[in-house]
Amino acid sequence: xxxxxxxxxxxxxxxxxxxxxxxxxxxxxxxxxxxxxxxxxxxxxxxxxxxxxxxxxxxxxxxxxxxxxxxxxxxxxxxxxxxxxxxxxxxxxxxxxxxxxxxxxxxxxxxxxxxxxxxxxxxxxxxxxxxxxxxxxxxxxxxxxxxxxxxxxxxxxxxxxxxxxxxxxxxxxxxxxxxxxxxxxxxxxxxxxxxxxxxxxxxxxxxxxxxxxxxxxxxxxxxxxxxxxxxxxxxxxxxxxxxxxxxxxxxxxxxxxxxxxxxxxxxxxxxxxxxxxxxxxxxxxx
Amino acid sequence: xxxxxxxxxxxxxxxxxxxxxxxxxxxxxxxxxxxxxxxxxxxxxxxxxxxxxxxxxxxxxxxxxxxxxxxxxxxxxxxxxxxxxxxxxxxxxxxxxxxxxxxxxxxxxxxxxxxxxxxxxxxxxxxxxxxxxxxxxxxxxxxxxxxxxxxxxxxxxxxxxxxxxxxxxxxxxxxxxxxxxxxxxxxxxxxxxxxxxxxxxxxxxxxxxxxxxxxxxxxxxxxxxxxxxxxxxxxxxxxxxxxxxxxxxx
Amino acid sequence: xxxxxxxxxxxxxxxxxxxxxxxxxxxxxxxxxxxxxxxxxxxxxxxxxxxxxxxxxxxxxxxxxxxxxxxxxxxxxxxxxxxxxxxxxxxxxxxxxxxxxxxxxxxxxxxxxxxxxxxxxxxxxxxxxxxxxxxxxxxxxxxxxxxxxxxxxxxxxxxxxxxxxxxxxxxxxxxxxxxxxxxxxxxxxxxxxxxxxxxxxxxxxxxxxxxxxxxxxxxxxxxxxxxxxxxxxxxxxxxxxxxxxxxxxxxxxxxxxxxxxxxxxxxxxxxxxxxxxxxxxxxxxxxxxxxxxxxxxxxxxxxxxxxxxxxxxxxxxxxxxxxxxxxxxxxxxxxxxxxxxxxxxxxxx
Lengths: 286, 250, 349
Ligand SMILES: Nc1ncnc2c1ncn2[C@@H]1O[C@H](COP(=O)(O)OP(=O)(O)O)[C@@H](O)[C@H]1O
Ligand SMILES: [Mg+2]
Fold this sequence. Notes:
The complex is a heterotrimer of chains A (about 290), B (about 250) and C (about 350). By secondary structure, chain A is mainly alpha-helical. Chain A has one domain. Chain A contains 11 helices and 2 strands; from the N terminus they run ααααββααααααα. Chain A has a two-stranded antiparallel ribbon. Chain A is globular and about 60 Å long. Chain A starts with a helix and ends in a 12-residue tail after the last helix. Chain B has one domain: 3-Layer(aba) Sandwich (Rossmann fold). Chain B contains 9 helices and 11 strands. In chain B, the strands form 2 sheets. Chain B has a 6-stranded mixed β-sheet with strand order 7-8-9-4-10-11, sandwiched between helices. In chain B, strands 1, 2, 3, 5 and 6 form a 5-stranded antiparallel β-sheet that branches. In chain B, α3 crosses α4. Chain B is globular and about 55 Å long. With about 350 residues, chain C is mainly alpha-helical. Chain C has one domain. In chain C, about 75% of the residues lie in helices and about 0% in strands. In chain C, α9 crosses α11. Chain C is globular, with a radius of gyration of 22 Å. Classes of the chains: A mainly alpha (about 290), B alpha/beta (about 250), C mainly alpha (about 350). Chains B and C meet through α2, α3 and α4 of B and α2, α9, α10 and α11 of C. The complex binds adenosine-5'-diphosphate and magnesium ion. Magnesium ion binds next to α1 of chain B.
């Protein structure tokens, strides 16, 4: 029972690290990026290649996954995404579905369609026993890393100059430019960090979420649920939503496998209708 | 005289701001009523409340004694309330003929028919053309509305409300920003309305207001400040202080 | 009224002009007639290609349904496969359990059942932004797919097997070359196209275009915006359901893939390729899509999705309106040709 709770928390934290970039780009930059999962996939495959083929230690591969995915993010943002910021949501959806299709086919072509596994070092395998509860070491690592990231992120957005610049840039681009804020750089950095985090989440989660070329499609809806249920007005909303989703999904698969994802999807629709701004958003205007 | 439109303690809050604060208006049948006040006073908000674009946070709206506070916007149109918008609200991809035709066929209860071709009911086309002709829009009636010059678009805006043949017409700064020629068309059309049509006019041009209105309400900061016959309002020192003072600033 | 009497002639000319202009909208252009003649000719010209042509007709009908929503009412959907899939399963169940054996009747029954689903779910998309609508429609499709996956009666992940179709109208049996299937699908597509054409040229259709452009003003002239949206959503769902039912009937099989997200995405792409808001976009898009799929799959089997994705990206980056603008001169030419042909007909008649 507690093991399931623990697994659920680890799963939810992973979802959060991957999806928080989406929450930021959607909430602050008003960009619907259905291809967000592709960045997580990229991080996963980067780790697989680094660890399994090049023999890089697993822990060292994580920052590399972050940096490389962030680099991919910056390049795509500067070359492609900049052109769709001002377009309608429908066009952003079409554009990013296109990117998803391309990434799925490209990864399939390069890496093959089979599921990939990261070779974990021995000290991360197996369980440790804490007061009679079996806790996977790897999941403990996930929770530790994701927890730290969450705190860092909260601090970065609320307490630093970059955070306030980002908010200024989003509130009114013209005014922000007038204040001497380089909006392009702010957006690019934000996008890069968001995709980097997705990459890191993908790298950490390859083992738990399962990594194959259809990853962006399979998990797209999970990231969207996190963002819609959690709202985009803060980091805490998506965080709580991720944890709930993670726990509900793990527990649901364990206790009532016959229901499948039915309940989760239904909850998403209800939340969308009932509170389109998200369950945990303060801006429940009207 | 019978009251047509009445508001009782009407109130609208947007978060912290009170855009409409306990406004109680009484408008008589056939009245030429002007609603004036400085920018941001809440005049447009009152019209939005009357037409159902916004829901009030308090108070009631009565049309000929019937409570219409919770009625949907389109049903109020069917009851005879029509409006124009301060900023043009048109259908950019439709032609003026199609636009006016929509309002006419909706009024005649044919707007939802899905099996009949557009233009196959002569009554609709005739009435639409008549309105277009009256507003000197006949020569552009086949052009896309989006491509028309501003003055012509403004005429479509007004004509569209007139095409609803309202009992109560709410005009939100109809002549604002309109070239002199079209301005005359608009004023003539308003003047030519049947006497039993009730008109509520929001307007900044004081000459126009005093030549048009038989009753004036002054709104300041969402509150009904003064109400009365034009002579009384013109003489009221408080109005001069608040309203004309603002005007002098602007 | 008085003015009308004084200048009676002038105003009568104006009314006549207005009538003529409105009537011209609904008139068949030579290009349209050519399109359908070509479709009919394809029956005889490509007898070996009837299987893929059937797929094209079905996809075209599916995209036409989305055009009614997106192109005319401006409702975005990322889960239109919900209705396609529902219709597909409905037709499959009707045939498998011998509820309705005659295919045409079963097709209508499936369409009506899907309309009911469309009616019920339409209330979910009335409120909210485009983004909310995209997510809600996506969610509805996912829920349906999950249900079909779990239920006993739909066969779960194995799909609905063992469907045997009776002859159409008791006379025309489906053959393995797909000859009957193609003619059947094409006739259904044409019939439903005629209805759709009638709808979009009606006052109801015009009101849809108005509320797509400006729902605030539409309500302010007395149009029941939500009522119209519910109506068109229901109709479009029925169209999609019939498309799905046609797929089941012509392949005698229904699987979970009818409810896939990819299917919703594909139909959106098809419509975007062909262009929205003139009814032929979905049909032309379906032809292009299938040809492309065929060709690309031959070049790089299994990876053709890459190119589809690339096309989507390019379409958005170049700009949809810029693409349609390049076809404007052609449309103007067609319009002029139409007017000339019709005035010729009237002159001689
Ligand atoms: N939709 C809205 N949301 C928030 N505030 C609004 C909204 N509409 C109007 N307001 C506010 O209400 C006040 C009155 O506005 P308005 O009715 O447009 O004034 P007027 O028409 O007299 O110039 C203003 O302070 C305006 O900012
Ligand atoms: Mg105003």
